[in-house]
Design brief:
about 20% strand; 2 domains; two-stranded antiparallel sheet; globular; six-stranded antiparallel β-sheet; Yope Regulator, Chain: A; alpha+beta
């Protein structure tokens, strides 16, 4: 059974988001505040400049297909290095599972799109929320890479990887803190089970506490064949092992969007 436009509006309303209905066009418009992406800065209610992006939700094919997209994110006609920009977009499509960038060859408009076939099934508000957030998060998080590619001709995902790695480390630290707190409640006045004074549990070195967790939540052991400490000169350079670990983790989580979901599940 196909979905009706009124049912779509009801699902979006259940999410508690600010939205606007364009009945004549069969579209639901959801504005998002962004941290990095901004087409044209807008003024907030307080009079300060804010970054915004809109996400459009609509039904197609007589209600048998749901399309969600962020329109007019970039324009190929305005790009100084269009080839590099398009390569960056394809690289993003490789990393992201749900959404993908597409270009209208008639005017050079570039938008981020996700389609979900409904056919004879049903859609829930939670499914729509996942798709909306995937679109908004992808466009905002990867904007610096795409913008630099179009403007300077350089493609570099290092900053994105660094932010993700920092969030993973923070998520791991938060998880360990919750685990220690739970252990302390089980054994009041005693050290957490399996630990010794001045030494982390199971003989894991202190440096391992800051390493990103694998997809199943476990912390990979340190390689005993390599030093656990790095000099200040070494610390100023990207660690190839950490970048490989992050790449493996992104792959195991099912892409960048899957990693975002993993971080959300851990409260980050």
């Amino acid at each position: 059974m196909a979905m009706t436009f009124s049912e779509l509006v009801q699902c979006v309303a259940e999410l508690g988001l600010d939205f606007r209905v364009l009945s004549d066009r069969g579209e639901v418009i959801v504005p998002f505040r962004t941290e990095q992406y901004a087409s044209d800065p807008t003024l907030t209610a307080e009079g300060s400049e804010g970054r915004t992006m809109i996400v459009v939700i609509k039904l197609q094919d007589d209600g048998r297909l749901l399309r969600i997209f962020a329109p007019e994110l970039y324009s190929l006609e305005d790009a100084r290095f269009p080839e590099a920009g398009l390569k960056a977009l394809l690289a993003v499509n490789w990393r992201v599972r749900i959404a993908s960038f597409a270009m209208d060859e008639s005017d050079g408009e570039i938008r981020l799109i996700t389609d979900l076939p409904i056919e004879d099934g049903t859609l829930t508000a939670a499914q729509i929320q996942r798709l909306i957030q995937s679109i908004a998060w992808t466009a905002d998080e990867l904007h610096p890479v795409i913008e630099r590619a179009f403007a300077e001709g350089e493609i570099d995902f290092a900053s994105v990887e660094a932010r993700m790695q920092a969030r993973l480390k923070a998520a791991n630290a938060s998880r360990r803190k919750r685990t220690r707190g739970a252990s302390a409640k089980e054994l009041p006045g005693q050290a957490p089970s399996g630990s010794t004074a001045g030494k982390p549990a199971d003989g894991v070195s202190g440096n391992n506490a800051a390493r990103p967790a694998s997809a199943d939540g476990s912390i990979p052991p340190l390689d005993p064949s390599k030093p656990s400490k790095r000099s200040k000169k070494e610390l100023s350079k990207p660690d190839p092992r950490e970048r490989r670990e992050l790449a493996d983790l992104v792959k195991a989580a099912g892409g960048v969007e899957g990693l975002r979901k993993l971080l959300e599940d851990r409260g980050m």
